[in-house]
């Protein structure tokens, strides 16, 4: 057990995360489906979840995907934090980052670091955004893009503007601005610093949220930005710094223990969803449960999620395009018909988008 997470396990976790996000982003647009508490905590949505659990119908899978699927985002944030430490701080080459470069032995220039990671994000964003706005322009329900918001999206500062949930479209692209903020936080505040810096920053960000109104605009603004993502990202950084190399034998019955841990996380996440204060800490349970899940998987199942994880970046930027095309099927005919068509189209689009991204110039540090 030389690594907490192998490269294969990290890729499988990305696969689980992108499938959860992709299915969530379709289901929560279907009429009559329970909406999630992602940026704010609404009691009426908890009531909707309780109603769906206690009076299940044929749409229960959609209710659950809609309400819980967005927790794929904390998994991505955790892997990003963990991968940054393994890539830039540990003496041996990390297992979770997607580049063959290793910068752990010498300090990195702040400007070069931020430029490099901005361009990596931009390679994905520009392909998906261009394709989306072309599809959006010729399909019903065209979004009223404004030039200043388009610039803010491409420069990845749109998250800090007022009413981000009304100006970021497609909505999932708020993640690019969040990641850019976290790269800045990592390089300026956490890079090669004590783990106590990470713990302190997590605590400060938690305190800033805990004193907000659960359904207020202040909490919404905070959670669209790095303050809301610091817990899972910081947990990844912290684990990367402290226990990235346990170098201990794997415990007996690791797969059984992992399976039990993954199963235990399900009712715990559901229970924590009913209180604002415990809701803030759900990403920790989600991350632990996902790690346990990939360690419990048989090899043949793991390979399936590794496949989706390999295409996770392309699926992330491509699935809003497929949703815009097929959400009307769920509105006008059958929700599961639309979901299946959307899923197949999103995978095909992801393959095509990946071919485009792979042919764009790779940024250099």
Describe the structure.
This protein has 365 residues and is mainly alpha-helical. It has 17 helices and no strands. The protein has helices at 7-27, 43-54, 60-68, 72-88, 110-137, 147-155, 164-167, 174-190, 195-210, 217-223, 226-242, 254-272, 276-279, 282-296, 299-310, 312-332, 335-358.
Defining traits:
365 residues, mainly alpha, globular, 69% helix
Q: Gist?
A:
With 365 residues, the protein is mainly α. It is built from 17 helices and no strands.
Topology:
Elements: H1 7-27, H2 43-54, H3 60-68, H4 72-88, H5 110-137, H6 147-155, H7 164-167, H8 174-190, H9 195-210, H10 217-223, H11 226-242, H12 254-272, H13 276-279, H14 282-296, H15 299-310, H16 312-332, H17 335-358
Low-confidence stretches: none
Largest beta-sheet characterization: none
How many strands?
A: 0
The level of helicity is 55-70%
Overall body shape: globular
Structural class: mainly alpha
H/E topology pattern: HHHHHHHHHHHHHHHHH
Strand content: under 5%
Calculate the mean pLDDT score and round it. Answer: 93
Rg is 20 Å
Span between termini: 31 Å
User: What is the tally of helical segments?
Assistant: 17
